[in-house]
Write a structure and sequence with these properties.
The protein is of the alpha+beta class and 268 residues long. The protein is globular.
Length: 268
């Protein structure tokens, strides 16, 4: 028995649905658990009838903005929205742009063998004005995942809004120090690895170039594959022996991001 876990920044689930692209994607790929980011919708704003899936939503207070969701074929033990209060109180997660804890950015489902968390990490902004937020957000989320890992293994996935190494973007030299490729952002991934989490795609494809998950709308970037890998599936080291594969799916259209996935030889 294999379990397929997918993550996709849909950049507006209503737009993907309106284009008629969501159901064909689900029918073809059959994810057991689909983690979404940037849903940009309240549950009552979209009528989704997805046979076989239970839908969980964590929408931003501000309509049409941010948000995460988990669609699952397997009933979870529990679903928790956001960060625990003790972590929220420890870090400064509000800045001039808003309160990130009210933006539906984190959702975590507990299953028997592990936790699955979906995350939509705040963007650093073109002028890097949100780097201070990232320096609070990244350790806050990592602490949450590390705390959960003490209970059972963790899978966390989503849009991390950073390319980790030069292999993870088409034009690294031109982007060093720019949004998505600053040392301050990249150290967030370094710290995840130091805390015993594994970047599944790089674990199985350590030196493979051009594995991108996001492309600019400009200049035919997607057609030319001038992209960035900013979407990840991270797992606890304990799960590495059951990873069958880790993939990106650039052929799936509907968003400026493509889905990423892992397949595990486990049962729920």
């Amino acid at each position: 028995m294999c379990m397929k876990i997918y993550s996709w920044n849909v950049n507006g689930i209503r737009a993907v649905e309106k284009k008629g692209l969501l159901q064909p994607f689900l029918a073809k790929h059959q994810p057991d658990v689909l983690c979404l980011q940037e849903t940009k919708a309240q549950p009552d704003q979209i009528d989704l009838n997805l046979d076989g899936y239970e839908l969980f939503w964590h929408s931003a207070e501000k309509k049409g903005y941010s948000g995460t969701a988990i669609f699952t074929k397997h009933e979870p033990i529990d679903v928790v929205n956001g960060l625990p209060e003790e972590i929220k109180s420890k870090y400064q997660l509000t800045d001039s742009y808003g309160d990130t804890t009210m933006e539906g950015r984190i959702m975590t489902a507990e299953f028997e063998p592990f936790y699955i968390s979906t995350v939509y990490t705040p963007n650093a902004k073109d002028d890097l004005s949100r780097i201070p937020m990232r320096q609070q957000w990244d350790p806050a989320y990592l602490q949450y995942m590390s705390d959960l890992q003490k209970i059972k293994p963790v899978i966390f996935c989503g849009d991390f809004n950073v390319a980790h190494t030069e292999l993870d973007l088409a034009r690294p030299k031109q982007n060093i120090g720019k949004k998505g490729f600053t040392s301050e952002e990249r150290v967030g991934i370094d710290n995840m690895l130091k805390h015993g989490f594994v970047d599944t795609l790089r674990h199985l494809n350590p030196d493979t170039p051009e594995l991108y998950t996001w492309w600019s709308h400009f200049g035919g970037a997607r057609e030319r594959n001038v992209g960035w890998r900013i979407d990840y599936v991270m797992v606890s080291e304990a799960l590495v022996p059951v990873i069958k594969n880790a993939r990106i799916h650039p052929e799936v259209l509907g968003s400026d991001h493509c889905p990423v996935s892992i397949e595990l030889s486990v049962e729920l």
